[in-house]
Amino acid sequence: MKALIQFITIIPFVFLSNNLNAQTSHYAEIENGTLHYQVIGSGKPILIINGGPGIDSDGFMNLAERVADLGYKCILYDQRGTGKSELKQIDSTTITMDLMTEDIEVIRNEIGCDKWLVFGQSFGGVMANYYATKHPNHISGIIHSSSGGIDLKVLENAGARINELLTESERDSLTYWRQQLIVDFSETNRVNHARALAKAYVVSDEHVPAVSARMKYVNMNINSLVWQDLRRMNYDCKQLLNDFHQPVLIVQGKQDVVTDDMALTADSVFPNSTLIFLDSCGHYGWLDQEKKYFGAIKEFLTSVEKEDI
Predict the structure, then answer these.
(1) What is the rounded distance in angstroms from the CA atom of residue 260 to the CA atom of residue 277?
(2) What pLDDT score was predicted for residue 185?
(3) What is the pLDDT of residue 213?
(4) Is 79 helix (H, G, I), strand (E, B) or coil?
(5) pTM of whole model > 0.70?
(6) Following DSSP, what letter does each residue of 21-55 receive, concatenated?
(7) Domains recognised in the chain with CATH numbers
(8) Segments in the chain below pLDDT 50
(9) 53: cis peptide before it, omega within 30°?
(10) Which residues pair with residue 73 across a beta bridge?
């Protein structure tokens, strides 16, 4: 088988784990700044690229721990300008997809591996795709988790899809707080806007607080600069990724803010892909469908191991 206020953001967050894997923190020098990354567990390396853009990787630590439990060394990093990855200046010359790709290579060389698996959640999937067009020989496989897509289709349908997933009263609430946020980017308005928006990202309301708690921390300047660069380059990886023959897992919720056609398009492009839709599942599969989500990842990683033998 083959924003909503001038921005698009799809955010990671925290969920609980009792993982006991060893964790180490590292820094790598880059031009005009420093990259921060963490290594969790041991085994074959998996780079985890979180969503956003414009937010740190803190909300992905426990996901990294769960994947490390499967016997892998997970590398989790703060994208440039976020968290502990500092830049001396943040503008259109320092926030680009090409520089973010170079950052990934810096980390790979620091880790000392020739090939690794790449796991991209939401915008992280966009980043993984672009990285794969530049350095395909350094990737042994890709996991797309509710990926932001293989082209700019997400910009066309994100708003409509969010409205579709909300009730009429929830849409009214989101519209109100969006307007308030435009007028005043205050903490109160950010919190209320995040809470209203989070309803579209998960099926179960019990997860709304966790999602909304992270949404308010997006660096809007970085978010805007990344999407600006994607538009500038007319981001579209379809042709180049037609020649990417390493195994790819595409896992997505049926009630995701990312529409089905985006996953189907990616599946049609990658020659060696597996597509899994999870029902009763939104943008965060490990929350709405934890068992099936991690089951799909474990099965994929097992299959990749067999291909490497």
Answers:
(1) 8
(2) 87
(3) 86
(4) coil
(5) yes
(6) --EEEEEEEETTEEEEEEEES-SEEEEEE-SBSS-
(7) 23-156+219-308 (3.40.50.1820)
(8) 1-8, 10-18
(9) yes
(10) 45
